[in-house]
Design a protein that fits this description.
mainly alpha; single chain; about 80% helix
């Protein structure tokens, strides 16, 4: 009986690992290869930047909408299946669109179904990991592995088929992910969780928590620094493939550059999940910001695709350190009953708000000032974030106080 139960636990986790592995294949396409498809259609850099910025704008609304639907219906699995079905339908429509206006409209619908999948998948991973007494990273790391695999594979596929096949490849991956959802075991909110969703006066904690969090100076300072750092990061994310294309890099080289960044973050995730508590969060965040600045400085100087691949390996000491440490810092400054709201704000600031600005703003800089100035500006935002995190640490060390409990080491 025990072995059967253990086998069921492993099956439960393995289905989700397979789903995470496949899901991040669509992320590779949307972030890195869709811009090449837009170039194939003849769109300009400002137009591509606008198309990129639509996603973060849509995600603000879609994340709130689908998370509310998931909470109301008490299911994650079914909502993810609906989202993948919506992606499939809109991708089929996108494959036939060539006009900028039509692409913009259909892509908006695609993003409506695309963005909420990732926080929902993380929610399921966290709950299943807790259910089996495992570390969340043992499931989440398969997303990084999937990203690495598809980054390299898709590059070679598109080199053979051409950038015009990007949407077709996306359709195939979405279909695979949709099939895998049938093997997932759903996670539902407990009655205890539902009771905890409201305060004693009956006000939803999502509403009360949002105000309570944003009224704290410490939290506002942190999210402001995160937002500034995210602008530079999202600029690089949106125009990395176009920069490589300008160096006459093939699609397979783009794949290798994405592979370098994805693989480099995996050991950092494991190291910090095990030893991260021994280090202060704010200095680590400042260090990560400085590494982002160095990374973008090197990108501004790079002239060969091979150099870019080497620079992408700095993803480990920039994003890898930043992401794990930022999530840990949020758990320090936000009380347990407001943590879900705090993470939601973090996602909106890091992904949605920054992506919206960096797409339009970055597109104009790239088109009018060139790639070198583009990356110098991204470096400048990283240095501002470095100053923000470091100054907050120095203030906390000297005389900082706050309503939320804070470790003395910060």
């Amino acid at each position: 009986m025990t072995s059967g139960r253990t086998g069921g636990q492993y099956s439960d986790q393995n289905w989700l690992r397979s789903f995470m592995f496949t899901l991040y294949g669509t992320s590779v396409l949307v972030v890195s290869y869709f811009p090449l498809f837009y170039t194939y259609l003849g769109f300009s850099s400002p137009q591509i930047g606008l198309l990129y910025s639509i996603g973060p704008l849509i995600s603000i609304l879609s994340n709130l909408f689908w998370s509310a639907v998931s909470d109301r219906l008490g299911t994650v699995k079914k909502i993810m299946a609906i989202l993948l079905a919506g992606q499939l339908l809109t991708a089929l429509m996108l494959a036939r669109a060539t006009d900028f206006g039509a692409v913009m409209l259909i892509l908006s619908l695609f993003y409506f179904f695309y963005y909420p999948l990732f926080p929902l998948a993380d929610t399921m991973a966290i709950k299943i990991a807790q259910r089996h007494g495992r570390n969340f990273i043992t499931i989440r790391v398969f997303g990084s592995l999937g990203y690495s695999f598809f980054a390299l594979t898709i590059g070679y596929v598109l080199r053979a088929l051409g950038s015009s096949s990007s949407i077709a490849v996306c359709i195939v991956i979405v279909v695979i992910a949709l099939v895998i959802t049938f093997g997932l075991k759903d996670v539902k909110r407990t009655e205890e969780g539902r009771a905890a969703a409201t305060d004693p006066a009956g006000v939803p904690l999502r509403e009360a928590g949002l105000k309570q969090i944003l009224l704290q100076k410490e939290v506002l300072w942190f999210f402001s620094s995160v937002f500034v750092l995210a602008i530079g990061y999202r600029m690089n994310e949106a125009f990395l493939t176009l920069s490589l294309k300008a160096m006459n890099a093939g699609d397979e080289i783009i794949g290798w550059s994405l592979l370098a960044s994805a693989l480099s973050e995996i050991p950092i995730f494991f190291i910090l999940s095990k030893y991260g508590d021994k280090f202060k969060e704010l200095p680590l965040l400042a260090f990560a910001s400085l590494m982002f600045a160095a990374r973008f400085l090197f990108m501004s100087l790079a002239r060969e695709p091979g150099t870019v691949i080497a620079i992408q390996a700095m993803h480990s000491i920039s994003f890898g350190i930043y992401y794990v440490t930022a999530v840990r810092y949020i758990t320090r400054i936000v009380p347990d009953h407001l943590r879900a709201t705090g993470m939601a704000i973090f996602t909106v600031v890091w992904s949605s708000a920054a992506g919206l600005l960096s797409g339009t703003f970055g597109g104009l800089i790239y088109e009018n000032a060139g790639r070198t100035v583009f990356y110098v500006v991204a470096m400048g935002f990283s240095l501002l974030a470095f100053a923000g995190f470091l100054s907050k640490h120095l203030m906390d060390t000297g005389f900082g106080t706050g309503r939320y409990p804070r470790r003395k080491s910060n």
